[in-house]
Amino acid sequence: MDRIGQRITDIKSTLPEGVTLVAVSKFHPARAIMEAYGAGQRVFGESRATELVEKASTLPDDIDWHFIGHLQTNKVRLVVPHVNLIHSVDSERLLRCIDTESRRIGKVTDVLLQLHVALEETKYGFLPDELTALLKEGILEETPGVRVRGIMGMASNVDDESRIASDFQAIKQAFDSIKSLSLPRMEAFDTISMGMSHDYPLAISHGSNMVRIGTTIFGEREY
Ligand SMILES: *Cc1c(COP(=O)(O)O)cnc(C)c1O
Description:
By secondary structure, the protein is an alpha/beta fold. The protein has helices spanning about 5-15, 30-40, 50-60, 75-80, 90-105, 130-135, 160-180, 200-205, 215-220, and strands at about 20-25, 45, 65, 85-90, 110-115, 145-155, 190-195, 210-215.
């Protein structure tokens, strides 16, 4: 088996049952994706709209594309037809925009709501209280074109493992408290997307059931 296929197989063998591997293929060519595909991988994550559309249009139809990057509202129309899950819904405006576009093309799009718990100011996302308030106001009853599947979050980009652990804990806590509200249209709220190449084992130990791994599978990205 080739190197990428071997890495996929190795990572999968360490993931507990019920944890989904999203192979983050952004900035990597179709050839690399096809090596992973050859090892049985079907879920791929991309973070740029035009790159996703190009790849989705030319690669096999049974690939399950996820969008994981910051999504500008003017790119929603490009992305929605191709994706099975958008991880990075970081504003009410974006949620409403995905809803509108999905309904226009007769689709219900699965989404995750992105939480901001990290130290960096540049990371996008809702604060936990902000998100709870938005959901309690009943926004999901106004947005039948989206189905909220859960939460996505990133830990602080630091070496301090205890800080990373507390960020993951905060994401898990927000997930649990939102789930316990038992709001209408949240029956499928079951996904916690957290953990990347350098921190996914810790994320899993804090309750993640979807990990987004790029570098460990495909090597360093060339921007
Ligand atoms: C690029 C990216 C990843 C993958 O990061 P690696 O460190 O390469 O595993 C995961 N999540 C998001 C949101 C990303 O943008």
